[in-house]
Amino acid sequence: MRLSQVLKEETVNLNITQGKLPDKPTEDYTNADRWRMKENVIRQIVELVEHSGLVGNKKKLLLDFVNREKRCTTAIGSGIAIPHIRTMQVRGFVFAIGISKDGVYFASMDGAPTHIFFILASPPYDDTDYLQIYRRISELVQNQNIFFELTTAGTPGELIRIVKDFLE
Predict the structure, then answer these.
(1) Fewer Cβ within 10 Å of end Cβ, the chain: N or C?
(2) pTM above 0.90, yes or no
(3) 103, 89 Cβ separation under 8 angstroms
């Protein structure tokens, strides 16, 4: 599968935000505060997936992503997260990208803010594209230059070109 078939400008967000932060010092945030911040990001992820035109039930899709993150964070560290699910709430493979220039809390394994979100959603019966793109993303995140290039992209079109140059 070529990325040009699935990654569209509508499924790119260069401004993922934390949402309203608790009015207290960062060190005083409770687990509930942190979870609310993470849910704000998950809502933006679901919006991106919805822009693909392949979402059946948006509320159920949100619940699927939330439940996935409750099991284990998809923030792998080094500023990168790969939220991924197989769900009946999408009618085909969806690949989206979100960027947070400032970084957001996403329960990263290394505790650092997350800046890049590679988002994958696929029906449970369609593993081929899902696994192929996941593998290619795993290769992509090992490239030291990609982080800077993606987080400094000025437009969704520029970001898509960068990803295609690395992955295709």
Answers:
(1) C
(2) yes
(3) no
Give helix then strand counts, H and E, for the chain. Answer: 5, 6
CATH of the domain at 161: 3.40.930.10
Task: Give residue-wise pLDDT tens across range 133-154.
Answer: 888 888 888 887 888 999 999 9
- Candidates 110, 103, 106; CA nearest to 78 is 110
Which structural domain range is residue 115 located in?
3-167
pLDDT digit string (tens) for 68-110? 999 999 999 999 999 999 999 999 999 999 999 999 999 999 9
Q: Please give the single-letter amino acid code of residue 54.
A: L
